[in-house]
Amino acid sequence: MSDRQKLHTAALVEPAGERRKHRKARKHAAVKIETDARQREQAVERERVAAERAERRNTSYLPAAGEPGPATLRTPGRFRLPRHQDTSATLAGAYPFLAEGGLGADGVFVGQDLYSGGSFVYDPWTLYARGMITAPNIVLAGIVGSGKSSLAKSLYTRSIPFGRRVYVPGDPKGEHTAVAEAVGGKAIVLGHGLRNRLNPLDEGYRPDGLSDVEWASTVASRRRDLIGALAETVLERALSPLEHTVIDIALQAVVASASVPILPMVVDRILTPDVGDDERLAEDGRLVGHALRRLVSGDLAGLFDGPSTVTFDPTLPMITLDLSRVVENSTLISVLMTCSSAWMESALLDPNGGQRWVVYDEAWRLMSHPALLKRMDAHWRLARHYGIANLLIFHKLTDLDNVGDQGSAMRSLANSLLANAESRIIYRQESDQIGTTGQTLGLTGTEQKLLPSLGTGQGLWRIKESSYVVQHQLHPEELRAFDTTQRMTNLQNHAGSGGSGDVS
């Protein structure tokens, strides 16, 4: 390398002293940055600690022993519990928040909540007023001997002191007759061989607030609907427009000529119209006339062929229609139920009538008739407006298979009644009924597994999304009044005292 090249290279190289000076400057700058950041964090932390201390100084705390005097809400001694060791499964049952607190204390006492051990109280009107349910309709299902009838009777009889009234528009077994008489009500017993008559064309109870014109229009409409429903029940089909016209013309003529029209007059007018009427009226109304004739002269005669011998008093605490004398004839039961439903309708739809129970016992039998099912649906939809709580009582939910054909309008209507009941009470069910019951009423798997093991008087109460297992409790006087096993018990006692052998 030449001398010139060596000098040029030496000029480009930084002296060692300068390099050390720059490294120290960079190191001092980095240390300063870290120190400043740490000081800022420490300042923020000091401010936070100071704020917490200031908050504690400004907060008042109770002494460790609690407030002095009665406000302590504790005993002088310390609460001590002995040590206890157990399995997690056992301790889960002692957990204090395992069960719900119930439905409150307002309403009718039912019995004991078997999960919480507390009293269980239920009242559909109270729950509706509190917003816990949106419709005061109830479904009660249970096999024979499970105690569902006693529960239904307890619910409505214990409601009477609260000002509620009870209507049973059809009692196929006559179970509610003794209860009605015991509470100061009335049981209307109808059947062949009895003197009681029920005139379907009676005006019925007149609600307050209706003018004469409004009342006359209401009565005329009710009469037309009722006679049409009776004809449809006997014919087991819907009426044609011509048949509706025949009924309307005949009814108008009878009402114009009689102060108290009765069904035989309408039948005569349909079968033998006036000379001045259309000649085809007799032909168009022939089937309807003969269908209604069964109610006054045929196999269904004796109940509708004269003026009413019984009256409907809506001010009584309870009214029931006893159909135990006609239980063998399903058509006659349907006709009687249709008449009684229309009879009670004027009182049910009175907005000043107060809060009322409407009990449909053996509901599967009643729902198998289209006319009755439509009336029940109407009462269901108007329940909130008129203060009605409908109670449908079943044995098992597969009874709905008797309501119309699969996919029919009747089956859909029956299922909608159950679906719209937000209070569902299920007593013991057989194992083969669990799937249908759970699917129809929307029960969980845990709830379904519980049903076969329920004892007498024990029921699963499903109130919207809440579930309770309740043991119904009866007073001894209620037990005697509600007993539905007297005939079986009396038969057994008689056989045992006779000494003539066993009854098989």
Q: Could you explain how this protein is built, in words?
A:
The chain has helices spanning 3-12, 16-57, 88-93, 124-129, 148-159, 177-182, 212-235, 241-257, 263-271, 281-284, 286-293, 330-348, 363-367, 370-381, 383-386, 409-419, 434-441, 445-450, 476-482, 486-498; strands spanning 108-113, 119-122, 138-141, 165-171, 186-189, 318-322, 356-360, 388-394, 423-426, 458-463, 466-472. The chain folds into 2 domains: 100-184 and 319-483, Rossmann fold (3-Layer(aba) Sandwich), CATH 3.40.50; 206-311. Strand 1 (108-113) and strand 2 (119-122) form a beta hairpin. The longest helix has 42 residues, at 16-57. Strands 2-1-11-10-9-3-8-7-4-6-5 form an 11-stranded mixed beta sheet. The protein is of the alpha/beta class. The N and C termini lie far apart (136 Å). The protein is built from 20 helices and 11 strands.
What's the gist of this structure?
The chain has 504 residues and is of the alpha/beta class.
Topology, pairings included?
Elements: H1 3-12, H2 16-57, H3 88-93, E1 108-113, E2 119-122, H4 124-129, E3 138-141, H5 148-159, E4 165-171, H6 177-182, E5 186-189, H7 212-235, H8 241-257, H9 263-271, H10 281-284, H11 286-293, E6 318-322, H12 330-348, E7 356-360, H13 363-367, H14 370-381, H15 383-386, E8 388-394, H16 409-419, E9 423-426, H17 434-441, H18 445-450, E10 458-463, E11 466-472, H19 476-482, H20 486-498
Parallel strand pairs: 3-8, 3-9, 4-6, 4-7, 5-6, 7-8
Antiparallel strand pairs: 1-2, 1-11, 9-10, 10-11
